[in-house]
Amino acid sequence: GQQLNQSPQSMFIQEGEDVSMNCTSSSIFNTWLWYKQDPGEGPVLLIALYKAGELTSNGRLTAQFGITRKDSFLNISASIPSDVGIYFCAGQLGAGGTSYGKLTFGQGTILTVHP
Amino acid sequence: DAGVTQSPTHLIKTRGQQVTLRCSPISGHKSVSWYQQVLGQGPQFIFQYYEKEERGRGNFPDRFSARQFPNYSSELNVNALLLGDSALYLCASSGLQGVDEQYFGPGTRLTVT
Question: d(Cα A14, Cα A17) in Å, to the nearest integer?
């Protein structure tokens, strides 16, 4: 099935470092969301973006909805060990047809934080 | 407040069998979506239901079906199981039709042998 191109695939960083990851698509999305998933659990919603150019923060997390509507970025500042996990971007095209309610996910970025 | 709940947590089935997975959305949420997540990949959309009607469908065979009940809980059924159906099945709820903030449950791990 269709997936977004998410990069990098994995990151190994030291505690305290900042992290950046991004997602690109050939299709325009009306909404971008970022999720974090721990092993054996469901994804947890971190940030939702609804307007092109929008910049939204949630604590140490900051995400941006790209101007072209085809990309999004997530930054984590001053990483801590509990940031370890898999981060997924997800986009939604919007209403209409059989894609209603469909979130299209990236392949995920595996983040490892060394103390 | 209770989040999205799913049952069972784990399930082992044999090829050719049928399975039913259950989901209860967040209280007050009327929309339920189902996703399949194969190991190492992001979730893939299967269905969305709103007010007991199917409103969205992903690229899955007819062996996959679902329904939503008056209390907004939902069931996902998979018939004639294949080895490739082994995956984590995730349910997500959202407050309104088309609202994109979908909140996921812990998932049901299905293993087909």
Answer: 6
